[in-house]
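Budget justification aside, the reviewers requested a transparent look at the raw inputs and outputs of the sequence design task funded under Objective 1. We therefore reproduce one unedited record. The lines immediately below are the structure tokens for a 176-residue chain.
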């Protein structure tokens, strides 16, 4: 079915038949509650927002980064500020009904701190490697400054020596 299409469904009760029109789900957006949620908060709630009043029964799904979609009973998901959640960079939600399904844009995790790693040793290795890069950069900059200093001193000495030779040759000339 097309996403903008509506579906008419007959709902039968004891005495009458009622036709219910179901519209496509809206484009969902992930919102955080409370609005003051920050990296210092203990926990926060993510809400898959969108006006589903005319969409009939709606199913909700959540995804962490590029992981698998997980079905949810509600349009909300609680996130706790722990090491596992700090490794998740983004969250996304999906709404689905009989007519359509739509995904939100990726929402940046307010608790994100740690890049995903295969194990703790990899995190330590990355840190150790980073320190070596910083140290090597400092050493290379120091060597470049030292080389520049040596070149400047060399040219100054050359200029002084050339200036002295000219003066000596002028003093030695008896015609002057």
């Amino acid at each position: 079915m097309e996403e903008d299409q509506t579906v008419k469904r007959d709902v039968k009760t004891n005495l009458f038949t009622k036709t219910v029109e179901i519209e496509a789900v809206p484009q969902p957006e992930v919102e955080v509650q409370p609005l003051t949620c920050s990296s210092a908060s203990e926990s926060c709630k993510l809400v898959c927002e969108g006006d589903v009043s005319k969409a009939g029964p709606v199913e909700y799904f959540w995804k962490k980064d590029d992981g698998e979609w997980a079905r949810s009973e509600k349009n909300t998901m609680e996130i706790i500020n722990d090491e596992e959640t700090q490794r998740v960079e983004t969250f996304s939600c999906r709404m689905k009904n009989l007519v359509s399904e739509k995904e939100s844009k990726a929402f940046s995790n307010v608790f994100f701190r740690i890049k995903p790693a295969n194990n703790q040793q990899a995190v330590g290795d990355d840190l150790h490697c980073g320190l070596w890069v910083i140290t090597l950069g400092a050493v290379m900059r120091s060597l470049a400054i030292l080389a520049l200093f040596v070149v400047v001193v060399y040219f100054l000495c050359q200029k002084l020596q050339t200036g002295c030779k000219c003066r000596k040759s002028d003093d030695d000339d008896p015609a002057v």
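The chain has two domains: 7-108, 117-176. The first helix runs from residue 83 to 86. Computational costs for records of this kind are itemized in the attached budget.
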